[in-house]
Amino acid sequence: MTIPVLSVVIPVYNEEEGLAALFARLYPALDAIGVSYEVIFVNDGSRDRSAALLRKQWERRPDVTRVVLFNANYGQHLAIVAGFERVRGERIVTLDADLQNPPEEIGKLLAAMDAGHDYVGGVRRTREDSWWRRIASRAMNRLRERITHIKMSDQGCMLRAYSREIVTAVAASREVSTFIPALAYTFAASPTEIEVEHAERAAGESKYSLYKLIRLNFDLITGFSLVPLQMFSMFGMLVAAVALATYVIVITYRIFFAPGELGVLLLWDRDILAFFLVGLIVFGMGIIGEYVGRIYQQVRERPRYMIRAVLERPAGDPAPGAGHDAPVAAVDPLRRP
Ligand code: UDP
Ligand code: MG
C-alpha cells in the first residue's frame, strides 16, 4: 500500500445488510475521482456478520482497504477517532456506512479543499430521515449554535472532509465523549460548507435510539460549552435576588398596611413555588452531574477503546504479486490509542 492522497473513514455497526451495496458503489466512486486512496473501515463491535464481510472485502482489495476491529461497541465518534489515528492520506473524508451519504459526492468535498479550505462540512440538501428526527435535529442545531459558537448548518451530516492537520489534532485530543464535526471545527483555519445529497438508509435500521440521540446532544453541548453550568449560577443569583425583594415587599406590607389581610399574599403559594424551585434545583444538579461525570471519565484515563485486530498491509508494501501474496493481519489486541 503506497501512501495515498485520500483516506476515507467509515464507522460500521451492525450493517451486514448494506455493506455489499456500499462496497459496490464506494470503490467505483473513488476510482472515478482519480486520486490514490485508502478506505478505513472501523467495525464498532458489530454483533452481526459485519466484521466477516469487512474481512472479505479486505481480502478482495487489500491494496486500498484497511479494517480496524473494535472488541466492543464504543460509538460512532470513537470509531472515527480510531480511523483518524491511522490515516495515511493528506485529506480525510468521513461518511456513514448505510449509503445515506452518497459516495459520489466525495469529489465535491475535495473540490472545495482544492479551493483552499481545510474543513468542508456537508449540508444535506434534502433530508431523508423521519419527521421527528428532522424537527429535533433542527432545534438542537439552533441551540448548539447559540451556546457553542460552532458554526455548522447541519451538525448531523457526517459526510465531511478534513485536512491531515485537523485530523491529527482530533486524534490527539484525549476526550472520552466527543463529537467529531464540532471538535474538528475548533481546529479549522478555513472552514466551509457545501450542499450534498442525502438518501434513505439503503438497508437495516438507524443505530440511534432516542436515548442515544439525547446522549449525543449532551456530549455535543457539554463537550464544547460551559454555558449550561454558568446559566445555572446566573439563574440561581436571579432567583435569590427576586426572593429577597419579595421578602422585603411582603414584610413591609404586613407591618404597615394589613396585618392578617390578603393582598400580596393572594399571589403567594409557597407549595407551588417550592415545587418549582425543587424542579430547577434537580435539573441544575443533573447538569452539574453531566460535567462531573465527564471529569470522572476523563481523569480515569482509561483507553477509550480496545482494538481486537487491524487488517492492513504495512505502509509502503508493494502491490501483491501474481496471486501468491496473501494479505496478513497485524494483530495487536493490547494496542492503546
Ligand atoms: N455507528 C457506529 N456505532 C454506533 C452507532 C452507529 O459505528 O454505535 C455507525 C453506523 O454503522 C453508521 C453511522 O455510524 O455507519 C451512522 O449511524 P446511523 O446511520 O444508524 O445513524 P443515523 O443515520 O440514523 O443518524
Ligand atoms: Mg444513517
Please give the order of strands in the largest beta sheet.
7-5-6-4-1-2-3-8-9
What is the count of β-strands? Answer: 9
User: In angstroms, what separates the terminal alpha carbons?
Assistant: 22 Å
User: What is the SS-derived class?
Assistant: alpha/beta
Name the bound molecules: uridine-5'-diphosphate, magnesium ion
Oligomer: single chain
Q: What is the count of DSSP helices, taking H or I runs of 4+ residues?
A: 10
Which band does the percent of strand residues land in? 5-15%
In the predicted model, the low-confidence regions spanning at least 5 consecutive residues are 320-328, 332-337
| Element-level helix/strand string | EHEHEHEHEHEHHEHHHEE
The residue fraction in helices comes out at 40-55%
Rg over alpha carbons: 26 Å
Overall pLDDT score: 88
Largest sheet: 9 strands, mixed
Outline type? elongated
